[in-house]
Amino acid sequence: MVSLNSYLVVTAILFALGLYNVMTRKNAVGLLMGVELILNAASINFVAFSHFNGNHVGGNVFSLFLIVLAAAEAAVALAIVVSLYKQFGTINADEADSLKG
Amino acid sequence: MGFAKIAFGLVHLVPLLPLLGAMINGFLTYSGRKVPKGFTAFVACGSLFLAFLISVGTFLYVSGLPEESRELTVTLFPWIDSGSFKADVAFLIDPLSITLMLVVTGVGSLIHLYSVGYMSHDESFSRYFTYLNLFCFAMLTLIMGANVPMMFIGWEGVGLCSYLLIGFWFTDKEKATAGMKAFVVNRIGDFAFIVGFLLLYWTLQSSGAATVTFTEMRDAAPMLAGKTWNGVPVVMLVTLLFFVGATGKSAQIPLYVWLPDAMAGPTPVSALIHAATMVTAGVYMIGRTSFLYSMAPETRMIVSTIGFATAIFSALIAFAQNDIKKVLAYSTVSQLGFMFGAMGTGAYHAGIFHLVTHAFFKACLFLGSGSVIHAMGGEQDIQKMGGLRKYMPVTYKTFLIATLAIAGIFPLAGFFSKDEILWQTFNHYPWLWVVGVVSAAGTAIYMFRMVTLTFFGECRADEHTKHHLHESPASMTIPLVVLAALSIAGGFLGVPDSLGHLIGWEHSNLLEHWLEPVFVMPREHAMASHSTEYGLMAFSLAVAIVGCYAGYVLFSKRKDIPAALVARFPAIHRAMQNKFYVDEIYQFLFVNNLLRLNNFLAKFDLKVVDGIVNLVGFLTKVSAYISGAFDRIFVDGLVNLVGNAARWGGSALRRVQSGQIQTYLYYAVGGVLLVMLYRLL
Questions:
Q1: Which residue of A has its CA nearest to B654?
Q2: Cα B571 from chain centroid (whole Å)
Q3: Contact (CB, 8 A) for B491 and B412
Q4: Mean pLDDT across the stretch B20-47?
Q5: Fewer CB in a 10 Å sphere around the end CB: N or C, chain B?
Q6: Is omega for the bond preceding B411 within 30 degrees of 0, making it cis?
Q7: Which residue blocks in B376-460 are alpha helix, DSSP H?
Q8: Cβ-nearest to A23 among B654, B656, B666
Q9: Secondary structure string (H, E, C) spanning B437-472
Q10: Whole-prediction pTM value?
Q11: B613 falls in which pLDDT band (50, 70, 90)?
Q12: Which ipTM score applies to this complex?
């Protein structure tokens, strides 16, 4: 029987990897991948908590919504990346800084 | 009667016509348009002659009225209405003002006519007639004014015109200065006059009779008896102040000094203003306020004393003068002294009588001297004349008549008027009578000295002048003849009752009876008997005849006697020639000190007052600078600080917004970490 803590450790690592990815990647697409990792970490957490909390259905439903949301997010974000590329000729997140103060 | 009534209805035009004439000529002069001299002369003479006709009509009208109603006030419109002080533009028509109106307009018309000839070559012909008409307006306002403010307007107006006409040839500095001197000396008198008037008004007001009109003041005058101001009777003070005013206007000691210098003006001006009319304003004023003078015997004593002192003092000066006009000027001062002598006795009619006759013969003398000067080409020194009798018969004859009149030869005008004065003085102040007789004798001598030196003997002028000698034109000789005729006949206005009685002419003193209702007489004074009067008359006549003869002989056949006298008493002669150094004394005592005071005040003004003003200005500047600096540094600094703080804050914080999405993520993560750290700790 895998304990809840094991799940949490895995998801924490996953979240940290995702965050690290988001914070360090220059490539906008890679950056989106990091976001997916973070979302999945959260998703795993929901399912794990649900499982250890009497198999409550709420957590599973939440993770389903998250998957849908992630799909939608990926679609929108990739569209943004495409138009970013059209606008700046690059998908490097550092170079798209026209909102600089 | 129709004419008289119409004339009386137009009586307000008497002063206004000359004013109108002055305005027409004045505006034409001012506009600089070329106007024919004939037109100017016509306007000037015409307006005054019309005024004369109206005056005659008014005289006829008023003399037809019963004696007690011969006092009419013609009110034109209200002038000042301030509280209890009410003065109208109103004219008082009574025997006194009518007498003066006739003299001013009559003699004035003649002198205007004379001026047409005398000034014919002058460039400022129309300016001259503007001033002359303006003078007549002011003089008529003075004598016809029904209240003191009106009289004062005229009083100042004649002073102004006198100033303008003395300095008529103002390009000559000496003449301009003479005008200024007359004005300044007159101001001293005018000041006293107005102070006297205010004191009188003030006292009347506190007695509940606030009035400025002569008739109401006369009725209220008894209330003034016993009123004092700082222990001095008000009536005495007022009359003295009025008299000081009169000494200024009428050239009496101590303010007579301007009149001889006033001869700088054109000769007809001397005749009109400085002999016949303006200088008698003081005498008229005393007559007009007789109700006050009759209540102040002390003042009357002073008036008489000053009058006779002036008479003898200026007669002495006249002896040693060589300028024909200066002799006449001092003679005028002397005759005015006689008038004041009469006013002081309370015999006001005698003073007015002499005023009238003097206007005739002195105007004649001045115009005669003008005729002489005209012929001599401007020469005024009688030592350089002589023998003019041959060249100027009309001038000579009229001049001689007027001289006999002023000397007091029976039956010319001067005899009656001067005799009346001496008779009244004999009864009131016997000692002054002695002075009066001596001055009368002096008058006869110096007048004949002048006549002798001018018209008799050999001509002492140079050939050039002699060649040009001629009788003056008709416009100048006609007034001379008329005035000479008046000098002969004028005396019969006032033949003493005692003398008329002898030839069965009762009440022969026409002028006295005519003027009787006007004057408020002092207490009845005991008069000496008729026989004394005859004696005095014979005596003064004898004195006059001897004086005339002496004047003639001493300066024609026996020139050695005056020469010997001069050699014997050189100091006295020099003093007389230099007018007893009165001008110099005044210069030393008053003028110099006044100038010193003025200089001091000027310095005070320049140093102290200006210093204070500049200091205040400087302090204002300093405080303004400080306040400006404060504003600039502190207030502006604060305002800018707020703005700058926002700007600095903005430029500092803008670095935070890098536009890079990951930077923001760092901040978010950093924030979360900080919160976590906070929770952990």
A1: A101
A2: 34
A3: yes
A4: 90
A5: C
A6: yes
A7: 388-391, 393-407, 413-428, 430-455
A8: B666
A9: HHHHHHHHHHHHHHHHHHHCCCCCCCHHHHHHCCCC
A10: 0.78
A11: very high
A12: 0.86
